[in-house]
Every structure is written in C-alpha cells, then in structure tokens.
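Sorry to interrupt, but I need a hand with the structure work. I would like you to pick a protein and set down its sequence and fold. Please put the record directly below this note.
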Amino acid sequence: MKRVTSFICMMVLAVMAFAGTAQAGERAGAFSISPFVGGYVFDDDDQSWLKEHRLMGGLRLGYDWTDHFSTELVGSYMKGQYASVDRHFGIYSYRLDLLWNFMPRTAFVPYVAVGGGGTTIRYDGPNSHDGTFNAGGGLKFFMGDNLALRLDARHILDFQNKDLDDNIANNWEYSLGLSFVMGGKKAAMAPAKATAAPGGPAEQKAATEPEPQPAPAAATEPTPGHYKYCITLQGEFDIDKAIIRDDLRNQITQVGNFMKKYPTTTAVIEGHTDNVGSYNHNMDLSQRRAEAVVNYLVEQYGIDRSRLSAKGYGFTRPIADNATEEGKQKNRRIEAIIDCAFDVQQLPPPQRLCMSLVLDFDTGKADVKPQYRDEIAKVADYMKRYTTTTAVIEGHTDSTGTPEQNMKLSQQRAQNVVDYLVKNFGIERSRLSAKGYGATRPIAYNKTAEGRAQNRRINAIIDCVIQK
C-alpha cells in the first residue's frame, strides 16, 4: 500500500504543475477512449501463490450520459507469475464501471466509481475464471476540450472460484492514462465565480455566468442624443482568408462616401462568421477581416484611423440558422456601425437605423413611465415619416440577477415599449417586434453602478427600404 500511496501523491503533484494551462471538459453525450498503464497488487494472504506486484495495461471505452454520470467498459492485461517458481501466465480482466463526476465543467474533475466483472487466468491447463467487484475513484485533469490526463485507483474484491466465504481476495489497482473525448455538448464558457455587486439586495445577487466583455467604446452603441446607422456588407471572403474581394469593395464605398460627407461620424467595423471551425479560430478570422476593411477605408478613402475601430465577434452573433448553407452565407458578414450626431429626420433612410432609448425602469419592473413619451416619440416619428419601415425593439439589462430572470425582464420591457408605440402613437403592431437579450450584450462593465446603468437600455433597430 505504501507504493500505491506514493504513486498517487506523485501523480497529483504532476497534475497540479500543469494547472495553469488546463480547460474544462466533461460533457453529456461525449464518447471517450482511455488507454492506461499501471500496477496491480494481489492479496498477500488469499493469493499468496501469486507474485504480489505486477505491471498492467488496458483500455477504457466510456460514454457520458450526463455531465455527472458516465459508464465505462474496461479491459486490461497483465503477465502473472507464481511466487515460488519462474513461471508466467496471462491474466485478463474485464468489467463495467459506473462513474459519478464531481465539478464536471472544471479543469479538475474528481469522481467515484463502482463496477463489476471478471478475471480470467490462462494456465497451461484449464483456465480459472473469477468474478470481481471494484470501488474507488480518480481524477481527470483536462488539458483541452478533448484531452485529459487521468489518475485512477480501485479496491478490487476477487471472488475466487472456490468456496466464496473463505476465498475473497482484497486486491488493488492503480493506473495513469489519457482520455480522448469526442462529441458531446461543449459549454461556450466555463462558469465564473460569483461576485457580489454593491447596492441593495437585488444588486447583490451572484451572477451565475461569466460576464461578457463589453464592446469597444467608440460607436458600438449610439452616444446619448446620437443615432446609429448599421450598414451590412454581404460580400464574400475566400475561405479562411481576410483579403477583400471586388464585390465587397463596391459595398465599402457606401461607408467611405458617407463618412467623408459627414466628417464628425465614427464607426466600428464588425466582423462575423458562420459556425464552421473552432471558436478561437473564428474570433481571430472575424477580427482580421474587420481590420482589413478598416485598413481599406483608411487607404482608399482617407478616413482618419482614429474614427475607426475593428471588432471580431466570430460566430457569437448569428442572424440566420447555421444549419443551412444559405444561413451560413448570411452569417459571414461585415457590418459598419456608424455613430451619427446630426438630425436624421432630414435624411433618407439607410439600410438600418439604431436609436438608443434612454429609459429608466424601476428595479425588477418593466413598466414604461409617462415621462419617457418624448424619448419613444423619436422612434414613432421616424416610422411615421417612412411608412415602409419595420422595427425590432431590443431590451437589455445589467448582470444583476440570474440569466433566466434577466432574459424574461428584458423581453417584457421590450414588449412594453412595443405596446406603448401601438397604443400611444398608432404604429401598426405588424411593423414591430420585441426581443430580449438579458445581460448578454453589455456596452460597459457591470462592476460599477455607472456601467450597469448604461447596460440597462432599450434599442430600436429600424429596417428601412432603400431606393437603389
């Protein structure tokens, strides 16, 4: 047993040394293949005729039914030896184990296991077949989404094929291996540790999900009193490249000419992709494509670089279903978000216009206060002036409360603004829809009261018919 304890301690220390680079990994629906090597210790009383310590190797085939619960089919082989003479023979073990994983979405996944099976000893004469029962546990250290270093230890009861009352051997097995994980439902992000926010009890609820990073400060949301043109550029890029093709250059002309005409405007160029490829690869690709458009505007249209910024969103903000090729094409896009500081009432409608409505809601409530009639009237006046326009009213919250509560609250606030436009300004309901985003699209950090106030907002995204 001292050897078993020493082995476990050394492996735990080795795993801890790599902790800084680990990622999370257990997930429902995943298959795993886990080769391993280790040692087997025979009972020195009930199986004293066998040499006590033997090397072994084997393979585990697993399936995660849930994040916590999995099963494994285990097979192993070792070369046994008589304790008194130099004679060897093969020992084959096979069993089915049930595992319960603790903290399945963390880098370190400890677990307990129980199982049963059998052992076959192949002598020169008739083979011996014993039944077995095992219990123990282990630890997986995930070095990525699909690879884990694994340490296991089991106490094995060997029911020898004689009188079971007197021939139950207490054996031990310890092993080190790798787990190759395939499939399953990956988490987009590992849950963040909850932090308390200042303020009243409602604001002190711990967030259950990691806080999304806010978008860049320049022009991603209209400055108070400003508006935002959203021009979607649908020109294609070559696969896995960020070189601007001719069909996209023609569309970028809209952005360049508009910003030259109105020199007080600023813009954020957003890059978006479909969901083919990994998260990190698509984030990098969308960023490089957005930066390519920024560089083109600077070099070809003389737009000052200080008026532009680039932001890649990868596949995190789809506008269509990635299950179809048509949907993927719509998601592979560049959007120019232009912040405007003049009276858009006097301008013909662009492709899309975003009006940021500064509305104050009571904590946990969605009622629209009468004093915000003039603010909402901006949307109504524009839609009355351009009768072919339609609008999506977006609701956003800070991170106070649970994600489910925030989604429900933001949806209700957006719906109430829609109802207000219909009831008080006569906008046809068929031209309006409501969408709640909860706390998933912050424009400021939720760590301060000022940031949370900025994130509690309503946006009106107006789609316009353009005469080409």
Summary: Residues 279-301 form the longest helix (23 residues).
